[in-house]
Amino acid sequence: MLAKRIIPCLDIKDGQTVKGINFVNIQNVGDPVELGALYAEQGADELVFLDITATHEGRKTFVDLVRRIAREINIPFTVGGGISELKDADKLLGAGADKISINSSAVRNPSLIDNLAKNFGNQFVVVAIDARKTPSHWAVTVNGGRIETDKELFSWAKEAESRGAGEILFTSMDHDGTKNGFANEELAQLSESLSIPIIASGGAGNMEHFVDVFTKGKADAGLAASIFHFREIAIPDLKNYLRQQGIVVR
């Protein structure tokens, strides 16, 4: 078994880390560089920094912030938000990001995935999918969950993989911020239908939820925000607990 990864996620708004519930009720939780450095020191495997209003506001991700992060942090990190063309990705890579995450721009222009993979390599490209359950299917959304699209979770994930995505970061909007556990059934279905790693996001509330996401959900990585930001779970404690449950972590 490949070692499972623990990934704190830092949502960025106006240069600060923020957190909400079901993508709303946003509150400030601190400086992203300081928080990221703390998580790296505690044993996080990777970090994800998402500029959560970049697409909605039509801005580009803050390249200067990425430079600061790269100077201070010694573990791999992914950056997303407002990336819509090759030059955006090139700037972020040049600033020190290890991977880029695309979401709304990939839904609107799927060939962006092909272009990024061809120019930078599949391992550089994370396709993030925010989806919510409807009576008939899991609907893919864009603009930070504000707009529902005609794309369906499983077929879109499959297409993203075929176009060159190196990983899928799936956030269940129904679970996001609720701390009631991950969308394990859907994660397992994604894992079984794809050959690339799946990062699970949305719903982490306790250590058992991570056991479930790695066993029932078959995810390759567990991503969380508020439980780390509000010091509810310490990363070293989480990793020790997972080892005790027989789950391989770094």
Number of strands: 12
Question: Strand order, biggest sheet?
Answer: 1-4-5-6-7-10-11-12
Helical/strand content category:
alpha/beta
Globular, elongated, flat, extended or rod-shaped: what is the shape? globular
Ends apart, CA distance between termini: 12 Å
For the sheet with most strands, the description reads: 8 strands, parallel, barrel
Annotation field: number of helices: 11
N to C succession of SSEs: EEEHEHHEHEHHEEEHEHEHEHH
Poorly predicted regions:
none
Strand content: 25-35%
How helical, in percent, are the residues? 25-40%
Radius of gyration over C-alpha positions, nearest whole angstrom:
16 Å
Mean pLDDT: 92
Structural summary, described in words:
With 250 residues, the protein is an alpha/beta fold. 38% of the residues lie in helices and 28% in strands. It has eleven helices and twelve strands. It has an eight-stranded parallel barrel, surrounded by six helices. Strand 2 and strand 3 form a beta hairpin. It starts with a strand and ends in a 6-residue tail after the last helix. The model has no long low-confidence stretch (mean pLDDT 92).
